[in-house]
Amino acid sequence: MLETQNLRAGYGHITVLWDLSLTFREGALTAIVGPNGAGKTTLLRALTGLIPYEGRILLGGQPLAGRKTWDLAAQGLVMVPEGRLVFRDMSVEENLCLGAYPKRCRGDVSAGLDRVYALFPRLRERRTQAAGSLSGGEAQMVAMGRGLMSQPKILLIDEPSLGLAPVIVNEVFSIIARLKEAGTTILLVEQNTRVALSVADDVHLLRGGQVRLSAPAADIALDRLHDLYFAREA
Ligand code: ATP
């Protein structure tokens, strides 16, 4: 349902993504893995209209060229940035409510909060606390909860395991697996290939801004992925 065709993007005169042609299946969880600087976050930024690009991005066959981030979020394409990017001076609940700004979600804010608190009971306990004083895992939950308040059809999640203790990583990933089971299409950028493979249906490996491997997760052996991950540029 979401695809890129010869996508080329970067910053100023620096090209980061080189002619990426990728498909993301509806209802599937696709992991985007690759070493530092591979262009994974840049891909999410292009998909959510945050940076200009060449080539095409299609959603349900319709080109997204020129569409603004807020407009895409209103249509259900929502990015969850890494947890450190919450609004630190605002409370947990104020952060969550920001996610309910698409028009179709505004009437339903308290039901949205209830859904988020059911998934993350710890956030209910801390709803009046400043987001800047949360632990890394709690901040990641706020970032995800804020995305869920927009009632996404496609959720793009950037590095949810970054800086988290293993037990919290498991907690966050069990929520991601539940969101997939509930029918949300998920694009997951993740450095931790082991956990990424454990939840993914499909995997795209990026290196140097190019696709090095696209395959069903079930067909990929972890050591083969690591070989490709660390291979030197030709
Ligand atoms: P990581 O896993 O380290 O987050 P990544 O695969 O997500 O890496 P990107 O963040 O997409 O990689 O960065 C790809 C390249 O683009 C890097 O060389 C980075 O320095 C560069 N880059 C990222 N953001 C900017 C920016 N705002 N201005 C200029 N260059 C940038």
Automatic annotation (TrEMBL):
SUPFAM superfamilies: P-loop containing nucleoside triphosphate hydrolases. Keywords: Amino-acid transport, ATP-binding, Nucleotide-binding, Transport. GO terms for molecular function: ATP binding. The keyword Metal-binding does not apply. Gene3D superfamilies: P-loop containing nucleotide triphosphate hydrolases. It comes from the Bacteria. Residues 2-233 form the ABC transporter domain. Belongs to the ABC transporter superfamily. PANTHER family: ABC TRANSPORTER ATP-BINDING PROTEIN, HIGH-AFFINITY BRANCHED-CHAIN AMINO ACID TRANSPORT ATP-BINDING PROTEIN LIVF. This is Branched-chain amino acid transport system ATP-binding protein. It comes from Methylobacterium aerolatum. The lineage of its organism: Bacteria, Pseudomonadati, Pseudomonadota, Alphaproteobacteria, Hyphomicrobiales.
